[in-house]
Write a structure and sequence with these properties.
Number of helices of chain C: 10
Structural class of chain C: alpha/beta
Helix content of chain C: 25-40%
Distance between the termini of chain C: 21 Å
Order of helices and strands of chain B: EHHEEHE
Number of strands of chain B: 4
Shape of chain B: globular
Structural class of chain B: alpha+beta
Strand content of chain C: 15-25%
Largest interface: A-C, 55 and 62 residues
Oligomer: heterotrimer
Strand content of chain B: 15-25%
Number of domains of chain B: 1
CATH architecture of chain C: 3-Layer(aba) Sandwich
Number of strands of chain C: 14
Largest sheet of chain B: 2 strands, antiparallel
CATH superfamily of chain C: Succinyl-CoA synthetase domains
CATH class of chain B: Alpha Beta
Number of domains of chain C: 1
Strand order of the largest sheet of chain C: 3-4-2-1-5-6-7
CATH topology of chain B: Alpha-Beta Plaits
Order of helices and strands of chain C: EHEEEHEHEHEEEHEHEHEHEHEH
Bound molecules: iron/sulfur cluster
Number of helices of chain B: 3
Radius of gyration of chain C: 19 Å
Strand order of the largest sheet of chain B: 1-4
CATH class of chain C: Alpha Beta
Largest sheet of chain C: 7 strands, mixed
């Protein structure tokens, strides 16, 4: 999960990284007050979870508090990559002598964190890496051995930085690595890290991503930063349908019936497991079908959970029919899913035989499951029908109707 | 009331026996049986359809005392 | 012959008294696996389907040869359990647990590397050498496992546990058995990726071809493509790429932690392109895999 710039900076400051004077404004009055307190020129930056703020015009400079207040009103409504801001960061503006880039992220191939440093900060790091490879260094970090400053020094030195800059940068980079490791981050980035004309070093912009799996582990930090339990911080905020899906999944601990994502089609999908869902969603689309949702059933969900998920999918007015499909299952029970889905259809006031286009879940307890499906007149198939074929049958039924 | 797919019936003799009833509550993985003090064993209707057909209840009781019926057969 | 495990492989189950571990133990035993002990701290003296339970891994390794461990403990305790297995000399560790923070996975993998151990997973269903042994939940109950998996020439590597069995089943139906199938795990960082298993399959005379299930996220396919190009592999590879729809929706995140599409990461289209360029056949549908494998086998004869 991604943190806003002001949250990232708050965390950086706690660990002693050098930051400029700043304040978070939710109203134009607050923007004016912060600018007054800072004194002198300020920069106003829209707080969104996305890059490209500068380009969108959501970062602007003000010389006076009045101007800051006015710019607040201008910037706040600007949509940056689909995101609107709730607040604007007002920060001192200082003359810059040199910009650096420093980040730590994961190298999935080496299975280690990697420290990326460049003495050409402020611009797109991928571009620097391409055009000026000798100005970007990559240094892998052990997750077992303690991180000591010499690695930071080597990373910085590798780009040609020396002298007092090297010695001033080393503790900053070291601290950023420590933050990355301490909070289970997937990204800790400062861009740019600057040397001002007066010789000070400052973190001008930065952001961090906390691994979703580690959110509970660092719940104290999340709470201290004022992040609500319901904030998913994904690229797109969840729709009410998706939030309801998460609730179904959380309703009991047995199995998975969740990861619901909303789409605008008419064929409801009750599909699984992880890989099976990806495969089936592709298959439906390939046949020209229009899925109303994505979801994942996995493990051994209760009848109740499968039932609630089905009801949720059917609650969308545009959903005419559903397809119930999984790969050959070995941990999920076919009969339990069949019971849940049929119950969900019936409780939604619909006829299973009409509503379920196809039931393709072969595997454990399939004989029992097939008996249930037969009893309710639902079309089903066993493992001799491929996932792709099953998806095709579902789509054909949809098309025959319309 | 039976469930939509499953019904479970317990003989009166077992339902009235606190010890045997306690055993049923213990073995069922999906809490289909419940016990209230000084009352005969109860069937938790809303859990009936969760029955895993594991037969643990049948095996734990005297022959014929518990019947698990699949209503879809 | 097969890779990683065969009928003589002995292993333990860590967290053996947990709900999932109990059924995994029963299924593995029924398939013929040699489970020589289980570990749940504080539960020493118990038995799970006749498998004795101990407090520590050391209590088992001190008495008998242990080749592997299946780790089935909650995410909070997984790192400790894996360290315990590695430090007691166990060489192949299957981590079933999901939702382990990446840093902890990296620590396990790093220690394994230092000690010459191999990790499969996390978030995987384990390994099966059909007709001989399975280690983990792959295939489910023994009887279902026998339906889907048969002995034969195809090695399987899959980022999805369920799709490992779907592919095996499709191959079996087409008369193509499997040498060893490995559910490698769905997370962003896993103990053993495709390219790291290739040398093992390459060295296994029984394996004649490889089937791969792949998903969005990560750079594992790029790595495999490079390995194939550099090593002039004798093995024809057929891959299936799921989640192609995700190319159209950057930033979406799905259940498998590794299935994350971010700005510059490989899209599924990139992955397919890379694999094709290195000579890997890419199936459009699962049911094309056997056909493509037969074709490639016929060509190489
Ligand atoms: S068969 Fe199993 S799940 Fe069903 S009622 Fe009996 S004990 Fe409970």
């Amino acid at each position: 999960m991604r943190f806003y710039e002001y949250e990232s900076k708050e965390l950086f400051e706690r660990h002693g990284l050098p930051l400029g004077k700043r304040g978070l404004a939710h109203t134009r009055e607050e923007a004016r007050e912060h600018a007054e307190q800072i004194g002198g020129p300020v920069v106003l930056k829209s707080q969104v979870l996305s890059g490209g703020r500068m380009k969108a015009g959501a970062v602007k400079f003000a010389d006076t508090p009045d101007e800051a207040a006015q710019l607040f009103d201008e910037i706040l409504p600007i949509v940056v990559n689909g995101q609107t801001a709730k607040s604007i960061l007002v920060e001192e503006k200082s003359p810059i002598a040199q910009e650096y880039y420093v980040a730590i992220t994961w190298d999935g191939r080496r299975k280690l964190p990697v420290l990326i440093f460049s003495d050409m900060g402020g611009i797109d790091i991928e571009e620097v890496a391409e055009k000026h490879p000798d100005h970007v260094s990559q240094t892998h970090i052990s997750t077992i051995l303690p991180f000591t400053p010499r690695l930071a020094k080597e990373a910085i030195g590798a780009t040609g930085v020396t002298g007092s800059a090297l010695n001033r940068l080393t503790p900053i980079v070291t601290t950023l690595v420590e933050i990355f490791l301490a909070y289970d981050l997937t990204l800790a980035e400062i861009n740019p890290l600057v040397r001002l004309e007066d010789g000070r070093f400052l973190v001008l912009d930065g952001h961090i991503d906390l691994e979703a799996e580690a959110r509970d582990k660092h719940s104290a930090l999340v709470e201290e930063l004022g992040i609500g339990a319901d904030e998913t911080r994904q690229a797109r905020p969840p729709t009410p349908f998706e939030t309801a899906g998460a609730k179904v999944d959380a309703s009991d601990h047995r199995g998975v019936a969740g990861n619901v994502v909303e789409f605008d089609g008419d064929l409801g999908l009750v599909i699984g497991a992880g890989g099976g869902s990806l495969t089936l969603f592709d298959a439906v689309r390939k046949h020209g079908g229009r899925p109303a949702n994505y979801c994942e059933i996995g493990g051994n969900p209760s009848v109740k959970k499968a039932c609630e998920l089905t009801k949720l999918v059917l609650s969308k007015p545009e959903v005419a029919k559903i397809a119930v499909m999984m790969n050959v299952v070995s941990n999920t029970r076919v009969d339990i899913v069949a019971r849940g889905v049929i119950k969900g259809v019936v409780e939604s006031g619909r006829d299973p035989a009409e509503t379920i286009t196809i039931f393709r879940i072969p595997g454990s307890w399939e004989e029992e499951g097939f008996k249930i499906l037969e009893r309710y007149g639902v079309e089903y198939c066993d493992r001799s029908v491929s996932m792709y074929e099953a998806a095709g049958r579902a789509v054909a039924k949809m098309q025959a109707e319309s | 009331m039976p469930g939509m797919f499953i019904d479970v019936k317990v003989s009166e003799a077992v339902a009235g026996d606190a010890e045997l009833s306690a055993k049923l509550v213990e073995v069922c993985p999906v809490s289909i049986f419940a016990q209230v003090e000084n009352e005969p064993l109860q069937i938790v209707e809303e859990n009936l359809d969760e029955c895993t057909l594991c037969d643990l209840c049948i095996e734990a009781m005297p022959k014929g005392a518990v019947e698990v019926r699949k209503l879809y057969e | 012959m097969a890779i990683l495990i065969d009928k003589n492989t002995t292993f333990i189950v860590q967290g053996i008294t947990g709900r999932e571990a109990v059924s995994l133990t029963r299924e593995n035993l029924a398939y013929g696996s040699k489970i020589v002990g289980g570990v749940t701290p504080g539960r020493a003296g118990r038995e799970v389907y006749g498998v004795p339970v101990y407090d520590c891994v050391r209590d088992i390794t001190a008495r008998t040869k242990v080749d592997g461990a299946v780790v089935c403990v909650p995410p909070k305790f997984t790192r400790d359990a894996v360290f315990e297995a590695i430090e007691n000399g166990i060489k192949i560790i299957v981590i079933v647990t999901e939702r382990i923070p990446r840093l902890e996975v990296a620590q396990m993998v790093e220690l394994a590397r230092l000690r010459g151990a191999r990790i499969i997973g996390p978030n995987c269903l384990g390994i099966i050498t059909p007709g001989e042994v399975k280690m983990g939940g792959v295939g489910g109950p023994a009887e279902d496992t026998r339906k889907a998996y048969t002995k034969g020439p195809v090695g399987i590597m899959s980022r999805s546990g369920g799709m490992t069995t779907e592919i095996a089943n499709t191959l079996t139906a087409a008369g193509l058995g499997q040498s060893t199938a490995v559910s490698i795990g769905g997370d962003a960082i896993i103990g053993t990726a495709y390219a790291e298993l290739m040398p093992l399959f390459e060295a296994d005379p029984e394996t004649k071809a490889i089937a791969i299930y792949s998903e969005p996220g990560g750079r594992m396919e790029a790595e495999l493509a490079e390995w194939v190009a550099e090593n002039d592999s004798r093995l024809p590879i057929v891959a299936f790429m799921a989640g192609r729809f995700m190319d159209e929706m950057p930033g979406m995140r799905f259940g498998h932690a590794g299935t994350i599409v971010e700005g510059k990461a490989d899209t599924t289209a990139d992955k397919i392109e890379r694999m094709k360029r290195s000579g890997i056949s890419v199936a459009e549908r699962i049911e094309e895999i056997p056909e493509l494998i037969q074709q490639r086998l016929a060509e190489s004869r």
